[in-house]
Structures are given as C-alpha cells and as structure tokens.
Amino acid sequence: MADLIQLAKDAGFDQAEVYRVSSESQPIGFETNRLKEASRRDTSGAALRVIKDGRLGLSATTDPAAEDGLVARVVELAPFGAKAAFEMPGPDDYPAVDIFDPAIAALEFDTMVQTGQTLIDAVRRDWPELNCSANVSRGVHTMSLSNTSGLEAEYRQTSYSVGFGGELVRGDDMLFVWEGYGASRLFTDTDWMVESVLRQLEWSRDTAEAPSGQVPVIFTPRGVSAALLGPLLSGFNGKAVMTGSSPMAERLGDKVVDERVSVFDDATIAGAIGSRPCDDEGVPSRRVALIDRGVVSNFLYDLQTAGRMSAASTGSAGRGLTSLPTPGTSVVDIAPGDTPYDDLFLGIKEGIVVERLLGAGQGNQMGGEFKANVLLGYKIENGEIVGRIKDTMISGNVYDALSKLEAVSDRAEWVYGTLRAPAIRCLGVEVASAG
Prior knowledge:
alpha+beta; single chain
C-alpha cells in the first residue's frame, strides 16, 4: 500500500488512493435432498484511484506481480476521466462494529454439511415428497484503504449464511418454499427456519382464488423486501438525486408516506452482513435516516455525488475492484409499529398475503412503481388464511401504498441478514387474478 502511494506521488498525481480487498469463501450446495457441490474460492486485488488536474483515474489488477504497472496505466486514463468533485478524506475515528467471528473463520466443512442435511431431513419427515435444496456458505473478507491525505483504514469481516427450501409438484401445480438467513457472526439455531418452511407448506396445502381489485394486502417482511424495498430506495440514491431522476430529489423535508413509516440505512448494526466501520472511501459509518416518521430526511451519498450536490458523504460508498465508488445501501432497517402480527388479519373480509414475487422490478421502479406475479402468497377470508393463491399479479406505487397504510407489525424480522423489516398491511395495491 505504502509503495503504491509513493509511486503515485512520484508520478505527480494531485491525490491518490489504494484500495485493496481479499476474500476467502466456501459455499456448499444441496440438490434433490443431498449434497451436490462444494468449493473454495480465494480472490484478491488492488485498485489505484487518482485525481490529476481535476480528473479521476482508476486502474486495478488481481495479479500482485502487476501492481507496479497500475501507476503507468492510470497516467494514460486520468485525462479522460470524470471531473472530481471532492477531496480525498484524511484520518478519522471509526465506530467499533462487531462483524468478525473467529468461529466462522474456523468452521469445518463437515459441520456445514451437517447443517444443510439436518434442515432438509427435518422438513422431509413431514413432507417426504418435497424436493429440497439448500446452501451453506462461510466467508472471510478484508478491506484496506490508504490515500495521500494520510488516511489508513482496514477491517476484517466474516459472513455465514444458510438457506434451504424446496419444490412440491402436484399435477401441473408447482409450489416453491424457502427460508434463509445470513450474519457476520456464527449462529446455530436453525429450528425457526424449519418452522417457517413447514408453515409455508401448511398454508399452501389448499389453493384459493385471489380477489381482484384494491383489497387489503399484507406484505410479510420477505414481501416488503420483494415488492416495496427496491422502488422505495431507488429514489434515495444520491446518484439518482444528482441526475434529477429521483422523484424525491425536490422532496427533502416533505412528508411522502404515512408517519408510521421510518426507514434507516445503518452500517453500524452488530452482526449484520452489510455492516462495516467505514465505507469503501474511508468515510465513517453511521445510522442514516432516509424516512423519519414519513418525512424525507436524507439521501445516500458517496464523495463524488455529495460533492456534486454540495452535501456531505453519508458513508454510503460501495465499489467493485474495477469500478469507481457509487452510493448504495448497507443494512436497511425499517422501524416496527405497534400492531401484533396476528392482529394484522383482523377485519379483513377478503385480502391477500404477499410472501415472494416472480419477476419483481417491472414498471417504472425509479418512480416508485412495482408490478410482478406472486410466487408465494395466500388468500385471507374473514381474518384467516384459507389457502395459497395462484396466477395472481400485484401492481401499484410504493408511495401510494405506504400512504394508505393500515397497520405495521410490532416486531421486525431479519430478511437474509441485510434487511430488518416488519410486516405491513396497506391498501392502494391492485390485485389481478387470472382465476
């Protein structure tokens, strides 16, 4: 790192930064109820980003022997780069974030295999006809950053994820069920995953015809992730705000959804996969309120977009080895409400529950629109789930749906380790059934 920085200084760059990453991962996969594959992947690389005469340049390599050549390559590229709107940050204080667990680094292959097979066997005891798959993965990631302003940042992070489910074929009907979780700390309690899959199967034992029109819709935490999260967060990306494509660009300080909705981006949550002490430009992590009680409060910026908008970076820069940093989310945390989960169903004569979608992302997502087929969902009649719905599509606008909020559950759940969200009941969603 120090050698590259010195070479960059000797080359006459105004500012320079070395970004280095390395990772070790071990994923294993199960198909048709048994172990299918196992592998180990090790990757590493370094990137040199510079500012010369107000222009940005970047060069990267995964070959340690080629690192000395980064300076020569970036000399050629910098004159054609984008205009830099920032100064590289100097040393700073970083929050202590618990994201490394030695137990994950030392996790043995046989233990991972046993975890996956145990989950599959537990579900197939009650549903032997279920064709199961699973994946279990562990990883160790290191990021280090150094620049000519004196910044030195480094952290190590572990990750551990478990997911499993299966498909059930009944004539021309195919049912898919799934559950999973990931964290930067080792977890051994997976009984709740089995219970979740069994509950999905039980609720899907019968089929029911979905209602049509605007009826009450309950989005489970997974449903929130599948349907609402993408179109909602796209408007808070600083790059979209900078280009004027975000519908929230001129709405800072305005109330845009129900006051029961508060959404945060928080890279300081202990144990979450997306947490980190600093972003990929060395800016300290912090909890950022995007929506605070219905009001647009912040946008997510990296250094470049913040500079273009005369704002401050929110510590939201992410990057690939060969790409310039861009703003993005880390860990999304949606505040719970005050309604017990079972009470969400009360008073619903006809409605649906949305668990997972197929083909999410259709429509004008930047404008807040969503439109997709329901991969897994259920019909509600007189406050109770009566069966799985098929051939059903939902569509709507996330800002409209969250303005027509009816209830928010009092408990938020983790969805795959990068989102913590409650269940949400709302109107304003169009339900169309082919039944």
